[in-house]
Amino acid sequence: MFAKPSKPPYPPNSKKTMFFEKISELEHIAHQVPCSVFVVPPSTKLKLKNPLCLYPDKSKTTAVITVEQMRDFLSLTNNCETTERFFVITPADVMNEPAQNAFLKTFEEPKPHCHFVLLTEQPSALLPTILSRAQVFYLKQADQLDQPPAAKDKIMLAAKKLISATSRDLPALALELTKSKTQPRQQALDIIATAIELLYKSYFKTGNEKFLTKLPNFINLYENINKNGHIKLHLVADLC
Questions:
Q1: CA dist., res. 174 & res. 172, Å (int)
Q2: What is the pTM of this model?
Q3: Looking at the domain that runs over 18-146, which CATH code has it been given?
């Protein structure tokens, strides 16, 4: 059975991903948790009271939110407030990795009355450490659930293999996934991030808890490899 955000309260310590039925629910949900990730269309309009918004750097040729922008944005949380404040990052998937890491440092020590709202169409572009610490909400509509992760066919196939692999399969699969001579670590991270999104969406579509039970291991795997851990070793040890 799916958890339904339309019925408050939304427990701040619950890490299960949830659905919401209507865009109009977004404001109420955002009040309940310190950091929410909403998987929504890019045209989504917010109705939050006086939100502070962070957008991509317009001076860049490609859409990106830089670490410099993020630091300036996060400095706004230092003000002493007695009313709820909303810090909106959109689209959150264009934060570069330094910006995401800077965001994590602030989010891990939340301040009173501060709520972070991340809007994205591509949750797999966010660090799994963000997804594991935030509350993730998907707009409940078929096309969102059926839309595959934004990954190349090679990455998608490898992610599916990793999800279905048994303990006996993992050593050979780890060897296969690390054959790349160019950026093997980044390729491994892309595969794991895609697997994480597939697991989320498989749970959304089926309600089968077995997909959620796999998530902690995959998130832990991503964190270990992202910290320069031994790729083959962790692919086997963390998923067994």
A1: 5
A2: 0.61
A3: 3.40.50.300
**Quick one: average pLDDT of 68-75?**
95
Q: How many CB atoms lie within 10 A of CB 109?
A: 6
Cα 169 from Cα 166, distance rounded (Å): 5
Task: Say which residues have a Cβ less than 8 Å from residue 188's Cβ, sequence separation at least 6.
Answer: 177, 178, 225, 231, 235
Query: 158-182: per-residue pLDDT in tens?
Result: 999 999 999 999 999 999 888 877 8
Rounded to whole angstroms, the maximal C-alpha distance in the chain is 56
Look-up of token digits 């209507």: 22
Contact 98, 71 (CB under 8 A): no
Helix (H, G, I), strand (E, B) or coil at 139: strand
Extents of the domains making up the chain? 18-146, 153-237
Going 190 to 198 to 29 to 42, the CA torsion angle's sign is positive
User: How many residues would you count in the chain?
Assistant: 240
Closest CA to 94 of 112, 74, 113, 67: 67
pLDDT tens by residue, 133-145? 888 888 876 555 5
- What one-character-per-residue DSSP string does 41-55 give? -TT-----SS-EEE-
Instruction: Give the C-alpha separation, 42 to 109, whole Å.
Output: 29
What's the CA gap between 49 and 52, in Å, rounded? Answer: 9
Using DSSP, state whether 66 is helix, strand or coil.
coil
